[in-house]
Write a structure and sequence with these properties.
Elements lengths: L2 H10 L26 E10 L5 E7 L5 E7 L2 E4 L4 E10 L5 E7 L16 E6 L3 E3 L11 E2 L2 H5 L11 E11 L7 E9 L2 E4 L9 E6 L5 E6 L13 E7 L2 E4 L8 E6 L5 E6 L6 E7 L2 E6 L25
């Protein structure tokens, strides 16, 4: 497992996927709808569009494998895989296009931490069937997929209303900090063309987490080529990629941060460690200013993974 992924998994254990809305009156009427499963006992909703369509991941009967799903009109649809056992719904736009990361039934790819199994994994776009069966990979790589959706729950999602998609792909270069695993970079896909978004400070690994309608991508990148002596892996920071430039969002005083959701104004929601790197709190980044969103009463940690286009952030999540 690469150190970039290791740091995210460590944070994942702190996060509860519990969404709470901000700026609401004292008494709110709402309805909770059980989306069901694809036959198993577990499901997770990852993203919702403005039409109320929901995508996520659900286990099948027996709970041994999980597939991406689309939920609409109280019906849940299995989006399948690319021949392998596992797929994850990673985003949906307002046209109903779903981007999915999935295992194939082909082996022999680069050794990496992107795929859920030892098989090669790729990404596809689904709309009433396989609309784009393979987004492809970066030059020399074999795999493309997602990771943070499982860890944090989706924020904006990895497909936008401009028919652009984002993801993470491996490259034919071994990570010197995690031999024999390959390094990975985020990419931007549009109409069959795939672009390597690079890393912060020319480091090894980075990963895409969300994209907005302007094609801005947010994610996480290593910030040094070598492990931190206290963390034992390279520190990671959230980033904003905008028209060829990757910007470091920095942290709330610790060594780690993750950018998880971005709206069409370029405002970013995420999570950062505090000084000492033992606690994490939600943040909102807006035009270069990183704001600590605090915690819920009685708690000492929080996380945020989305910000709506009106500018209201999703409230801190209890940890």
């Amino acid at each position: 497992m690469t150190h970039l992924k290791l740091s995210r998994v460590s944070a994942m254990t702190l996060l509860a996927i519990l969404a709470i809305t901000t700026h609401l009156p004292a008494q709110v009427k709402y309805t909770v709808t059980d989306l069901g499963t694809l036959g198993g006992t577990f499901s997770q909703a990852n993203t919702i569009n403005n039409r109320g369509q929901v995508v996520g991941t659900s286990s099948l009967r027996g709970d041994e494998v999980a597939h991406a799903f689309l939920w609409e009109h109280r019906q849940i649809t299995d989006l399948g895989t690319l021949g392998g056992p596992i797929s994850v719904g990673a985003g949906i736009n307002d046209s109903g296009e779903v981007v999915v990361g999935a295992d194939t039934d082909i082996f022999g790819g680069l050794k990496n931490t992107i795929c859920a199994t030892e098989a090669i994994c790729r990404m596809f776009i689904w709309k009433n069937g396989l609309e784009v069966p393979d987004l492809g990979t970066l030059p020399g790589g074999t795999d493309a997929g997602i990771f943070s959706i499982i860890a944090f729950g989706a924020g904006t999602g990895l497909i936008n209303n401009s028919h652009q998609a984002a993801g993470t792909a491996d490259l034919p270069r071994v990570d010197p900090n995690d031999v024999p695993f390959a390094i990975s970079h985020p990419f931007l896909w549009r109409k069959g063309l795939i672009r390597d978004l690079g890393t912060l400070h020319d480091c090894n690994n980075s990963d895409a987490n969300a994209i907005n309608d302007k094609g801005q991508v947010v994610g996480v990148s290593e910030t040094t080529p070598n492990p931190d002596p206290e963390l034992n892996f390279p520190p990671v920071h959230g980033f904003l990629w905008d028209h060829g430039v990757m910007r470091d969002l920095h942290t709330l005083g610790g060594k780690l941060s993750w950018a998880l959701g971005v709206n069409n104004q370029g405002q970013i929601a995420g999570v950062s460690t505090l000084p000492g790197d033992l606690l994490v709190e939600a943040f909102l980044w807006d035009n270069g200013v990183l704001t600590d969103l605090g915690t819920l009463p009685g708690d000492n940690q929080s996380a945020a993974n989305a910000v709506r286009n009106q500018g209201d952030k999703e409230a801190p999540k209890q940890l």
